[in-house]
Write a structure and sequence with these properties.
It is a single chain. Strand 1, helix 4 and strand 2 form a beta-alpha-beta unit. The chain is elongated. It has a six-stranded mixed sheet. Helix content is 58%, strand content 8%. It has two domains: 245 residues, no CATH class; 151 residues, abc type-2 transporter like fold, CATH 3.40.1710. It is α/β, with parallel strands linked by helices. The chain contains 15 helices and six strands.
Amino acid sequence: MHDQLPAPARTLAQPGQSLQSGHSVQSGPLALLHRLLALIAKEFLTLLKDPKSRTVVILPPLLQTIIFGYAATFDLVDVPCAIYDEDRSAASRELAARVAGSPTFRVVEHLRRDADMARLLDAGQVRLVLRIGQGFERALTLRGGVGQLAVADAGSGGDSSGGATASGAAATFAASSPPSQTPSQAPSQAPSQAVIQAIADGRNSNTAGLALNYMASIVDDFGARYVAAHGGQPRPSTLLTRAWHNPNLLSRWFFVPGIVVMVTMVVTLIITALSVAREREQGTFDQMLVTPYRPTELLIGKAAPGFLVGLFEASLIVAMAVFWFGVPLRGSLLTLYAGLVLFLFSVVGIGLMISSLSVTMQQGLLGMFLFTMPAAILSGFATPIANMAEPVQWLTLVNPMRYVLIVVRGVFLEGADLTLLASQLWPLALIGAVCMAAAGWLFRHRIQ
């Protein structure tokens, strides 16, 4: 009786064969498209039928974009500072008023003695203390400008020095005493110099450096205006600065286009890295193997939802960048989407490789995070690649996020076209092709 059963009922259908008849399924273009659309619809239903999955796909990217757009910034605003005015003259009060009127600084206290400087800095109540030395106005009158701006970093444990122009005709950053010394113990200056000392909290070196640069620009502008108002000799040369592409040097214009790439990558990786692992964990992967789908068709069906959702998320965040954060989009949308499509091609391939190697969803999530962190650090998202060690710079060449960041920022801020960005687009296409080929090989290997 067993021998009388038809052969297809005793064996599993092979890829490309029908389970009912054992014969090859229709192989025309329309039949292939019909099968792919059915598989893609099934993947979308699997993704969207779970309320938690819907929430993960839609809500977190929007919240991340808003939070990162306001939190990720290098701009200093409302920095707490203190002023120690030993001269108490009209010129020193004018300089103190300029500092207080700056949007960068917020004067929280006017000091009366040297010991208060260390107390406020050590307690973290201020980030910077500006000390105006005795004889400040007299030296300005004699020399026609500000003499020196001495800089000390609290918490650095040693002398600090700078090399940028501070103010006046011959003013430079000068070495000063370590934080353990009070200003009265600092090296004495010539009595004809108008001494200004800026002491910054060096425990946060980035904030300290930016605060000192802002203070130096205020003092420099004060010195130039004082010379012009009191008939002093003007400086022999004047530096006029202008920033192209970002005239106000808003760091938000730099970070928000990068957030488009970052959030899109995370969402796409979550969907693709869990696609095959979810089937294995739920026990439905073996059922898919007996369907009349070829491995290539299964791979396309798994890749399409992540690609389409990633493209939708990227479009949504681009709209938020333009209409919510006010970042100018000066280039062509065609160039922008060319870079995003090639980038998503690479990310989908990486996600499918992770998913093919993962047995459980937990392993897929772990693999996703193991890739996301190095990719973000080695992309130039926050720190320039040129500042990295040379071996690390070579390592960034295989990171697709490196290239797409240049494309997105170039389109947003520079208005760059396809011709200028071709050198970034072809590496993205190459990385995407290699990743998809590797994902296909791993997928077929795991099936066998």
